[in-house]
Amino acid sequence: MPTTRASGHPTDDAVRVRRLAERGRYDAATVDAILDEAFVCHVCFATPDGRPAIIPTLHARDGDRLLLHGSTGSRLAKWARQRPVPVSVAVTLVDGIVLARSGFHHSMNYRSVVIVGEAAPLTGDAAKRAALDRFVNHVSPGRAAQVRPATRREIAATEVLTVDLAHASAKIRTGGVNDEPEDLDLPIWAGVLPVHMVAGAPLPDAAVPAGVDVPEHVRAHPLLSATAPA
């Protein structure tokens, strides 16, 4: 299967955007930016008896590969330790609700990524520790350096699967309403309701000792500095 990351062209049939093909993007920068902003991905795979399965999980990107967080006891992890498991991974960021003059033309503004590849376990305690730091820093930049290091027991209980990003594509919808010309004069409001994820004020755990303030890396979290669109 030819790679799409080097060329940025839709040469890979497995991830080629077919419907509304003009929305497809194949360059690594676009794919990586969406993966880096999203917190959760969905991993689809087939069970040994042929049934489809899908699970949501935390992910993080390490260069040209995606890291998937899981338990050593999960079905996917057990199968991946025997042989690489074919998977399809998807993430979606919703940027707006498009309210049209007809139900048919209602839509979403979104940025999505689909990856096709094989999930294989990451080996070695040092590599696992580095991956776990990536997961923590992915959801809260700078956090990994501030918390207790993972114990050997925690490392042993955690599985990290890797998926190569060679076969990935993005699909993006932006802009306003695409109504039928004959509907434009209807006395119906139409437009876009922007969607933006922001964080509320940090809520300390009840057991945090007196005098331990919210650390700077939490105060500087991107979702705290983000502002909702007007």
Which key terms come to mind for this protein?
six-stranded antiparallel β-barrel, 230 residues, alpha+beta, Pnp Oxidase, Chain A, 9 strands
Number of helices: 6
Structural class: alpha+beta
CATH superfamily of the domain at 13-96 and 107-176: Electron Transport, Fmn-binding Protein, Chain A
Q: State Rg.
A: 21 Å
Written as H for each helix and E for each strand, in order along the chain, the element string is EHEEEHEEHHEEEHH
Q: Summarize model confidence as the mean pLDDT.
A: 90
Uncertain segments of ≥5 residues (pLDDT<50)?
none
The share of residues in helices is 10-25%
What do these coordinates show?
The chain is of the alpha+beta class and 230 residues long. The protein has a domain at 13-96 and 107-176: Electron Transport, Fmn-binding Protein, Chain A (Pnp Oxidase, Chain A), CATH 2.30.110. Helices cover 20% and strands 32% of the residues. The chain has helices at residues 28-37, 75-82, 125-139, 152-157, 216-219, 222-225, and strands at 24-25, 40-46, 52-62, 65-71, 85-99, 107-121, 158-164, 168-173, 191-194. A 6-stranded antiparallel beta barrel has the order 2-3-4-7-6-5. The longest helix is centred in the middle third of the chain and has 15 residues, at 125-139. The chain is globular and about 65 Å long. The chain starts with 23 loop residues before the first strand and ends in a 5-residue tail after the last helix.
